[in-house]
What does this fold into?
Amino acid sequence: MTLPTYRSFEDLPPQTEIGFGEIVAINLSSHTSPFTHGLHRYPAKFIPQIPRWAINELSRPGEVILDPFMGSGTSLVEALVADRYAHGIDLDPLACLIAKAKTARNDREELRHLHARLANSVLREEENLFVPMDGVKNFEHWFSRATWGTLQNIRNNILALDCSESSRVFLLCVFSSILRRVSNADDQTQKTYVSGTLRKNPPAARPAFFRALERAINSLDTVGSKRMDTHVRIHQASATAMPITDRSIDLIVTSPPYLDSVDYMYNMMVEYFWLGDVLGIPNRRDFNEARRLSVGGKKSQSNLTLPSCVSEYIDLNDLPDYRKAAAASYFSSMDNHFREAARVLKTGRNYVLVIGNSQTEKGQLPVHDALVSIASTHGFSLQHAFGYRIRRHYMKFPRKGRGGIILMDWVIVLKNEGRGLAPLRRLPMPEIMISPDAVAH
Ligand SMILES: C[S@@+](CC[C@H](N)C(=O)[O-])C[C@H]1O[C@@H](n2cnc3c(N)ncnc32)[C@H](O)[C@@H]1O
It folds into this structure.
């Protein structure tokens, strides 16, 4: 069987030049981390090309962009450099810290000065070791004693600095960005675990931190004359109850969690061990509680029922028992979210949604169709949809197993018709074949 060929782009062409249902390839040979995009890893991060395309196509300078599942804030950075205002919402406090560090008006001179001060004060491994998050046992499983002592010293020095709030956030974000690498945890996968077979030889923490800090401050220079200022508001809140005024948003661009998505907080566990107390999650119990609130989580609230319009696309009986409650909770939360989205988005304006389709033993689950159908019950009509495939640089392994494999992402353009039920159009469902070396994400 021959494999399909896709039109391939570095930057997506205007939407009028992409067919409805077409699948395109996005070539990641170009640099994907200009500006502050590369400050910190984050699970299922957007490639900047997608929000950039949506912002340029569907909004004008001076307008207001919202990303209600902002993660590490890729859309917000793109909104800023394109001269838009932006709101970002996420439940995950670490995501909020990263997004703040990437979009605040960072004072480069102050940061360079703080860099020099830290270089003079971070000189030793602390001997009197403490575990920064209560209830975490066996910390030496995650960090060698030498790394632990050095990290403790860096963290204490950052917290003791007399500096602006935005500089401290920036420094904590850089500190957080090296934690996985200097830990014993595997850094080839997203999951936080220490491999018994692939022994890791982590780099020393002190040089890793100062190299990362140098790079991070330089990345602020690449923003150059572009605006990084107070035009961004970050809210630690839920996309199902948004602290946003009615009809105040010109464009929503987002990638919500997938059904059975990665457990964002679990994947960032070593970072939470070190920063949980600073982020309002001081112990292991609070951490586990916070994880349950995320849309798409496997252990999310089980009292939610499947919105009736979804049953046309997804039969819960086709799912194994362990996925039924999670699927009901996912679609129900997305239903609440679209109600909110219809409230905050101006009439006639667009909502661009990026979502993967999900493969199970029984075939593809039309999650995208189900979401379009829920959205239509809140007045959103489907304007355009196309698929794109990329080789994600961060996920090195296919996501096989119980959660299914995501073979491709959909870009779905909706329009807020501003009243009742919008007409429903179904998405094309192409037969996807992946070549043996392609990596699903
Ligand atoms: C696919 S990620 C977004 C990644 C983002 N596009 C980026 O570039 O980093 C989805 C995000 O949704 C967040 N999330 C899950 N449930 C949420 C909710 N109820 N309200 C707001 N954010 C939520 C997760 O914490 C995660 O950061």
